[in-house]
Amino acid sequence: xxxxxxxxxxxxxxxxxxxxxxxxxxxxxxxxxxxxxxxxxxxxxxxxxxxxxxxxxxxxxxxxxxxxxxxxxxxxxxxxxxxxxxxxxxxxxxxxxxxxxxxxxxxxxxxxxxxxxxxxxxxxxxxxxxxxxxxxxxxxxxxxxxxxxxxxxxxxxxxxxxxxxxxxxxxxxxxxxxxxxxxxxxxxxxxxxxxxxxxxxxxxxxxxxxxxxxxxxxxxxxxxxxxxxxxxxxxxxxxxxxxxxxxxxxxxxxxxxxxxxxxxxxxxxxxxxxxxxxxxxxxxxxxxxxxxxxxxxxxxxxxxxxxxxxxxxxxx
Length: 316
Hints:
Blueprint: H1 6-19, E1 23-26, H2 48-58, H3 64-75, H4 82-95, E2 97-103, E3 106-112, E4 125-129, E5 133-135, E6 138-140, E7 144-148, E8 151-158, H5 168-181, E9 191-195, E10 200-203, H6 230-238, H7 241-250, E11 252-260, E12 267-275, H8 278-295
Parallel strand pairs: 1-4, 8-9
Antiparallel strand pairs: 2-3, 4-7, 5-6, 7-8, 9-10, 11-12
Helix pairs in contact: 2-3
């Protein structure tokens, strides 16, 4: 039996992703100076030419200069607050990038799409490993990044389950290090995934370790066998292109809450990014499907009831 290593786990994850329709390239093969380079520098996080081609493909009726303005707005999101940048980009993805122009004395705007949610196959899905990023003189190499139209929206950080010191908690801690050293990557991130090859959990950029959740079903009909690695279950259940785009579009919220500092008396608005867990995702989609059937011409007008435990996120 081959010795289990982090490289084996990485290769396994990539192979499963390829079966789901993800194209694969090694990070060094598209690095600056490589024969097939797609980056001008290691500071460049987005695969800009892929994004430009996608924007042109998805917005054929919008002038080229407006398309380029949209690309530049995506590239120039910046503030000292990682979560603020992340929310700004999420709004661009969901609500499209608004580019104003004048017509007949009125101000109007082009709405430039970055992702085609209605037709998933109209997008480009790319998995890249060992993608070097340099920011503020910090050199980091995330294990696996998933790009949609050149945008890195999923980060997968892996540790070796055979190494007692390389726990899934260490994978979470590594992501926190990335947030501190290469924060630009998290402007565009929708989902963070941590795994040791067996255990596997997903969370948002603002989630604490306890909020990273397992994805226990590959099809939403039954829980997967406990003998199948959770990494495989999550990839097949959560990272199929159609499911991932559905999650990004419909199952991410930025929840605002007011918190008062007991010492200063100052009230601040805090933001928390929340990503649906597997039971919420499947239950909501099933509920919508049943409701549409019940409300149709031949429906019985009985939408049904969803039962979940206390604290499962029913209200959201």
